[in-house]
UniProtKB/TrEMBL annotation:
It comes from the Eukaryota. This is Uncharacterized protein.
Length: 185
């Protein structure tokens, strides 16, 4: 993955204040501390000297509004690239692209990019990247993004979306595999 369209540095306090009416950013810094602690315990084992990741309100992040994701096609095993946006204003309209994410349980799920950022823990020197879904506010590493996905709002059911699996053969095969893994058939 490669992040682009970097914005100015923001503190966690500024992010939480600017988005006070958006439940996505409720307890944003605390959720990130918990996610990173769990993530590094899973990936690397315990942190050096049993340290905990503890961002402060005045620590900064850099927002990004673009991400390039390379993925291997299930059709021909060649590498393809998705160019994804996460922007409050992209040609005059909000654009928050959808993705397929690989969870820590090795399952694929659908998500929407709401906020892409990098931050550095000054004490440990690690770089962090995160996407945050809406109200559930789960945190995922961008490394778990498999590829972009096309989800279309279901006009008959408010808040639900239809997965468009016919955009290409790779997407069709991935959705079929997700159905099979979920026990739908």
């Amino acid at each position: 993955v490669k992040l682009g369209s970097s914005q100015k540095l923001l503190t966690f306090q500024e992010i939480e204040q600017c988005n006070a009416n958006d439940s996505t950013f409720e307890r944003f810094r605390i959720k990130l501390n918990i996610f990173l602690g769990d993530y590094f315990r899973t990936v690397r084992g315990a942190l050096p000297q049993g340290r905990r990741i503890q961002f402060k309100a005045d620590d900064t992040v850099t927002e990004h509004r673009y991400i390039k994701v390379n993925f291997e096609s299930k059709v021909d095993w060649c590498q393809y690239t998705d160019y994804l946006r996460c922007s409050p204003s992209f040609h005059g309209h909000a654009r928050h692209d959808c993705v397929i994410l690989r969870t820590s349980q090795q399952c694929d799920i659908f998500g929407r990019l709401l906020f892409l950022f990098t931050c550095s823990d000054k004490h440990l020197g690690f770089w962090r990247v995160r996407e945050q879904p809406c109200t559930s506010s789960e945190i995922f590493s961008v490394q778990s993004i498999v590829r972009g996905a096309l989800l279309f709002p279901d006009s008959a059911r408010d808040g639900e979306h239809l997965v468009i699996d016919t955009i290409d053969t790779d997407m069709f095969l991935r959705v079929q595999e997700m159905h099979r893994d979920a026990g739908h058939y």
